[in-house]
Every structure is written in C-alpha cells, then in structure tokens.
Amino acid sequence: MSRILVTGAAGFIGCELALRLLARGDEVVGLDNLNAYYDVSLKEARLRRLEGRAGFRFARCDLADAAALADAFRLGPFDRVAHMAAQAGVRHSLDNPAAYIQSNLVGFGNLLEQCRRQGVGHLAFASSSSVYGANTKLPYSVRDNVDHPISLYAATKKSNELMAHSYAHLFRLPATGLRFFTVYGPWGRPDMAPLKFTKAIFEGRPIEVYNHGRMQRDFTYIDDIVEGVVRTLDRVPAPDAAWSGAHPDPGGSSAPYRIYNIGNHTPVGLLRFIEVLETAIGRPAIKQLMPIQPGDVEATYADVGDLARDVGFAPHTPIEDGLARLVAWYREYYGVS
User: What is the pTM of this model?
Assistant: First the structure.
C-alpha cells in the first residue's frame, strides 16, 4: 500500500484515477480548488464518489497558494504524487491567460518545491498533446521537437515539462510527464466536444463543427487513460545511461525523467465521431460548420510505442463502445431519455 497525493481529485481524470488507486488498496489524499471554470456541481458529484471510501481524505486547496499547499503536504509523507490538476482548455486561454499563469505555472512550481522538500519518490504529471503545436508530422512522437506551441495553454504544459526536468536534474526528483490525447467518457468535462455535442444533440440545438469537420482527434477512453497513468506511476524513471547531450533525445534524460504520449493511437475524423454519437443517442445532430478556431490543430495522433514498451500500455476501447458508455451515463446523470 502506498500513500499517494492526487491533485485535481474533483476533476475528470483525477477522480477516476483516485478511484482506481483506492480500489487496489492505496491511501489517497485528494486536492482540488473546485474552481468555477465549469459546473461546480459536477465536480462535487465526482467528489461524492470518493468521500466515505476507506483510505481517502480530501483537502480543498489552490496550488497557487504556497502556504495552503504546504499545509496539505503535511497529510503526507507521500510515496507518489499524481498531478492531474490544471487550468484546462485551449480556447479559454485566449480569454483568461492569467488563470493559466497562476494555476499551471505558479501552482506547478509550488508543487515541485513541496515534492523536493518532502522527498517524494515519483511525480507523474499531466501534460498534453497540445504541446505539439505547429508540428504536422504524424504520428506525434516524444522524440519530436515541441518548441512551437500555438496556444498559451500548450505553452504552460511545455513549461511544466521543462520545470519538472530541471528538478529531476538538480534534485534527482523522479518525474514523468504524460501527454494526454483527447480524453473522453462518463463523468467527463462539459467544456470538451464529446459532452458539448451530447448535450446539444439531446436538447435539439446545433453543434459547432470547427474546420468544417476536417479535424481528426486521437480520442482516448478514460479507463484506458487511467490504466496507463497507474502503470506509469508505479514505474519510477531512472537516468538513461545512453542519453547524449550531443544528440539529445527529448523523451528521455540523464536525469530520472521521462516523457510519454498516452493516447488511443487510432485517430478518428470529427464527422465520424459525430456519426457514432448520433447512433448512440438515437437522433441526428444539427451541424453548424465553422472555420478552425485560433489555437486549434487539424489532427492529433499519438505514437505510444515507448509507453507500450515500458509499462505494457495497450488501449483497447473503440470509439463505438466508449461513446455508448458516455451516452448511457449522460442519460442517467442528467435524467434525459
């Protein structure tokens, strides 16, 4: 049994991860600030799934508040830290950049410092496929250069990777970054396309289809994501003796640090995604075709070979099954038919 800190425990991935860790017998301390970026009642409902379970404790905490975070770390010591909290959303970063600076940069810096001071055995943290930015070579590889983000959100996630590497190098804090690819499923985020589309179709409202539907996403089901996070959390990275500064591999390091893609490795066209969702709901979508949004990319596609090799990651949920489960949850949670 390990004692594990999960940040963003009221969030989509954080809650599911905490449930999985508790189910296998770990002790989990969950942190979240329950901000109002999207429906707080959904976050509170996720927390209720965790409360009362043996081995779970919750602390409401904003990571940007260094003193509050230090207090939360007194609930440790922690064997592992799974950092799933962030100010999420590409488009929101165009309108409210300060929220991303505070949460994703200041907050992450505070977390790194607490991990260093407490001697945490492994920090696994959420990065994003957004870091690939202007890259067009597919599939995206952790060995690709990612120096051209096209949104502030992506820039903060790339910054997190650099910050974590510096702590791994200077203080030997083992750190693993996970670049998530379009996570969806029951209890998902209402600001993301899967739930936005689901809600609009049930309500008979148009859905906004950007880039006139000429988009592809590596949609990854939540259970597959959580399985990959747990396997990665259990594998503490070691310095790569073969790493060379003359030919630096961005995915590895001479420090105890790794970067992985975590995606389905099966990109799906947006129009196909909508078609499958229409079938699951049993009614057609009203499509409003729109130009591509600033900060968006046309396609994402994860090369997950390193994660498969190192931890046996093998996503297995096809979009048809994943969307059927999402729709079934939506009907039950929101009481619609």
Answer: 0.95
